[in-house]
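Submission checklist for the structure archive. All mandatory fields must be present; incomplete records are returned to the submitter.

[x] Identifier: GNAT family N-acetyltransferase
[x] Organism: Allomesorhizobium camelthorni
[x] Residue count: 204
[x] Sequence attached
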Amino acid sequence: MTALMPRDCIRPALQEEAGEIARLFLVSSYGLAAYIWSKMDMPGLSLEEIGAARYARTNTSFSFENCLVAVRGHRIAGMVHAFPMEADASGTEETDPILRPYAELEDPGSLYVSGLAVHDRYRGQEIGGELMDRVYALARARGLPRVSLICFERNETAFEFYRKRGFQEIGRRPVVPHPCLHYRDGDAVLMVRHCSSTDQVRRP
């Protein structure tokens, strides 16, 4: 199936690519995914295997169904994971102190980007920007007025990447340190970009 697809494109992820998505998600989350997956009751599985099982699911927010992958030469070069952020229907608060800051920074009504990552060998080729262009267009196609994401304040490269693409800070919470996290101080920052009429879905 993959061989019939274009060598260089951005397309929806396939279920059998859940393992690659998990590997990229470990990169994009700077330890947060590792923390979450380590708490799941899946004895005997590595973090990548737990993540792959998580993203192989269907009909849930954290699924390959909400991922786009950038392909270069039939190889996955990067991915972005985004889903509509809805209000917490249960009305319960996050009780895990490590995760509470991120739960408090949710932006209901937006298309939430929970992960964007590009493999090292493909960086510097504007792949991240191309993936984000598709995200803006998808938000408009789904009738969502804005795109949201959370960026670590200490991750200056990512912070500047999003600022240059029109994202603005609308909230922040102090990071709660944990050995799994790459950034153990500073703030987690909620950033939002409003979609414009020029954000059209681009086809590969």
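[x] Structure attached
Curator remark: The domain at 2-194 is CATH 3.40.630.30 (Aminopeptidase). The chain has a mean pLDDT of 91.
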